[in-house]
Design brief:
Length: 210
């Protein structure tokens, strides 16, 4: 036959048995215990109501610890996700910069890889600029170079030719890809445009004779 458990007031305090100091109820907990006793019609102080109040305190502390742990864990997870997103963005932008650097000739114009990228992404059939002497050009090459020169440097309002540090912009550097000196002033850009007009005029004369 199973032995019935001893009443709590007949058992030794488990904290004392473990060599730990006893914990006392706070004034608020004592007030709550007294109110419960009055509602039940019992006398106070009594061990059972104090034990029940202490158990509630322990339960609340455990719940609070769980919530804190859950929040901390959620915060750590969120921070990890944020770091991963930042790392991905950084890697992606680095790849873009690397790709862009391979596609642009630092001296001006596009590289062969850049022209392939344009063909792949935009369907544009770009060819290298014409750098031959005028006497060696075919009529079609005169038309291509003349058209480029007028389109880039003959427009009414030119884009900036130098940046804030006085270095040529990509627009100015495109002249190098066509065998022309890089313009840093409006007058130099207009000279290239005038040369383009002469090439187009020569192209028209050549096609008219043919």
């Amino acid at each position: 036959m199973a032995r019935s458990p001893r009443a709590p007031w007949k058992r030794q305090n488990p904290r004392k048995r473990a060599g730990k100091a006893s914990r006392h109820l706070s004034p608020a907990q004592k007030s709550a215990a007294k109110a419960g006793v009055r509602r039940a019609g019992r006398r106070y102080p009594n061990l059972v109501d104090n034990m029940r109040m202490a158990a509630k305190k322990t339960s609340k502390a455990k719940k609070s610890a769980k919530k804190t742990s859950a929040k901390t864990s959620a915060g750590k997870t969120s921070a990890k996700k944020a770091r991963r997103r930042t790392a991905k963005k950084t890697a992606k932008s680095a790849r873009k910069r690397s790709t862009s650097a391979r596609e642009k000739d630092p001296r001006g114009g596009l590289t062969a890889a850049g022209r392939k990228a344009f063909a792949r992404n935009q369907g544009a059939r770009l060819r290298p600029g014409v750098t031959k002497k005028q006497s060696e050009m075919t009529p079609q090459e005169m038309r291509r170079k003349g058209s480029w020169a007028v389109r880039f440097y003959g427009r009414a309002k030119l884009p900036p030719l130098v940046d804030a540090n006085g270095r040529p912009t990509r627009h100015a550097l495109s002249a190098h890809a066509w065998g022309e000196p890089v313009p840093t002033t409006v007058a130099a850009a207009r000279r290239i445009a005038a040369k383009g007009e002469r090439l187009l005029a020569r192209y028209r004369r050549a096609t008219a004779r043919a």
